[in-house]
Amino acid sequence: MGFRHAIMTLLLMVSALPAQAQLRVFACEPEWAALVRELAPDAELTTATSYLQDPHYIEARPSLIAAVRRADIAVCTGASLEAGWLPMLLQRASNPDIQPGRPGLFFAADHARLHAPHDHVDRSMGDVHPEGNPHVHLAPDELPDIARALADRLGEIEPGASAAIQGRYIRWRGHWSRMRAEWREKAKELEGHSVVVQHSSFQYLLRWLGVETAVDLEPKPGLPPSASHLSQLLAEPNLGKASAILIASHQDPQPAEWLSEHTGIRVVVVPGTVTGEGPTETLGGLISEIIRQIESAASGVSHGGL
């Protein structure tokens, strides 16, 4: 009876302990929600955008304001990607922990080497980010540094879970290194190929693979392809060497389809970020699928886009 009484007493003591609060995370883009899920799978996640949305242009909806107000940390890209909506969201949410310079606001771009920074930017240049290309979630060599910094920050916000978060980061890093080695082997077959793009969304990965950009459907970054610009592209000498016209799921397919009709170059549509399901549920899966689609186009095999 004494042993049973001791067990019952212990169970009552444990049940009386306050429950550990669940880590609440606001992710500006799906890629960072996916990375948080790898490091802190029990976190309560709210994501502001989806793979079918352009992250440059998001409305600061009441539901998002409420999510930021109650969040412990916001994980965003930075490098001015969310400049059109995040400052207003932070102001309206009035969460003192999630403000510039506070631990509760994490910018992935602060922990990566960005391509194409500009000393001078004005509106005549289009949608150019002075810090550099913000679409760093498709940079195989930069993601480990971002993930490590995020693991450290999550552990700072939630000290009791820090050791578990670091353990998951180490496992994630090992898996990422193995995938990166596989991608490097595939890159040997793709080096020297070229594709038509729309915006710089895939530039980190294309550059890493050694795949060149033949032409850009946009006349200037962020400006929709115009009929006159598309007509001018037909005279571009690099166009005939392109293996595919690569666009993201959230982009208007009509310019790419028009160019395809006039050139015979295949249109490949892939998600610009994780989708939350299937092979593109994680960042590693997303990169693998984009590479597969480019491989397919380069080899002339027709599997269609996502």
Automatic annotation (TrEMBL):
GO terms for molecular function: metal ion binding. Keywords: Signal. It holds the Pfam family ZnuA. This is Zinc ABC transporter substrate-binding protein. Residues 1-21 form the signal peptide. PANTHER family: ADHESION PROTEIN, HIGH-AFFINITY ZINC UPTAKE SYSTEM PROTEIN ZNUA-RELATED. One of its GO terms (biological process) is metal ion transport. SUPFAM superfamilies: Helical backbone' metal receptor. InterPro entries: Bact_metal-bind_prot9 (IPR050492), ZnuA-like (IPR006127). The keyword Signal applies.
